[in-house]
Amino acid sequence: MSVIEMKSIKREYRMETKKSRKKQSEAIIVRALRGLDFSAEQGEFVSVMGPSGSGKSTLMNILGCLDKPTSGTYALDGIETSSSNANTFAFIRNRKIGFVFQSFNLLARTTALENVELPLFYRQKDKKDMKQKSNLSRKERAMAALKEVGLENRMDHYPSQLSGGQQQRVAIARAMVNDPAFILADEPTGNLDTGMTLEIMGLFQQLNDRGKTIVMVTHEPELAAYTKRIITLRDGSLVSDTLVENRGNALADLAKWKNDHALLAEDL
Ligand code: ADP
After folding, report:
1. Is the CB–ligand 1 distance for residue 255 below 6 Å?
2. Which residues, at least 6 apart from 164, have a Cβ–Cβ distance to it below 8 Å?
3. What's the rounded Cα separation, in Å, for the pair 97 and 62?
């Protein structure tokens, strides 16, 4: 079974414009996605690329169950999302998808550990979960997720006491704590310098090696080269879908980058 199975996805935006003279309104239809087919299996690491206006955000919103297509079907982990009611749609979003944003979106007055625990509070309201209560407490699960991203020594730090790369690690731990069907990352390194970017890409590669499915929107071909597959959108259509050959190793590149930087510092 595919984690993601999208068929003939169309998303049209209807825009009303007022004609100034006759004051009649006129509708313009913007075709943001024009019948897109896209599937991903467990363990894939997919980049979504394409120029501005090609439909990447529209696709992200539908993949993330933040929006529904005008037509077409989207099954996530075998659950058909397009026909689901509002409650089921929100349930799928909260439980099946781990979001990672460019801006981290952490709560400022809340420690790393509490930030990661947050999705588990919503989960507890879920009756099904109350019945099959996991043996691990919320805190233990959040601690395990932070350990997985290498932040076991920073659990009690507030976001302002962490570097950008560390804040993004907390956000990744938060995205994973519910054990989602896939991680959806939107330009996750857009606010980070080269070293931190390589660190985060290395972390994604490690998580993917352990079986996590990841979909990442990026503008940068160098970052897409660390993933396993690249889909490219243009004018709302999927124009290419290729496997990455000679995939980069972000942690090896990070070590090299650190080495080069140490040499530069010595030169000063
Ligand atoms: P990208 O993320 O690749 O820049 P988008 O998905 O944001 O592309 O946009 C795809 C197309 O849909 C663009 O032509 C954009 O102007 C249009 N569009 C996006 N959102 C809306 C909206 N809410 N209303 C009308 N048109 C929109």
Report:
1. no
2. 104, 191, 192, 193, 196
3. 12
- Which residue puts its alpha carbon closest to atom 1 of ligand 1? 53
- Tens digits of per-residue pLDDT, 161-190? 999 999 999 999 999 999 999 999 999 999
Digit-coded pLDDT (tens) for 51-69: 999 999 999 999 999 999 9
Residue type, 125: K
- Tell how strand 25-40 and strand 4-18 pair up: antiparallel
Is the CB of 10 within 6 Å of ligand 1? Answer: no
Q: Is the pTM of this model over 0.90?
A: yes
Atom of ligand 1 nearest to the CA of 11: 12
Q: Is 237 buried (19+), middle (13-18) or exposed (0-12) by CB count in 10 A?
A: middle
Q: What class does CATH assign to 42-69+95-267?
A: alpha beta
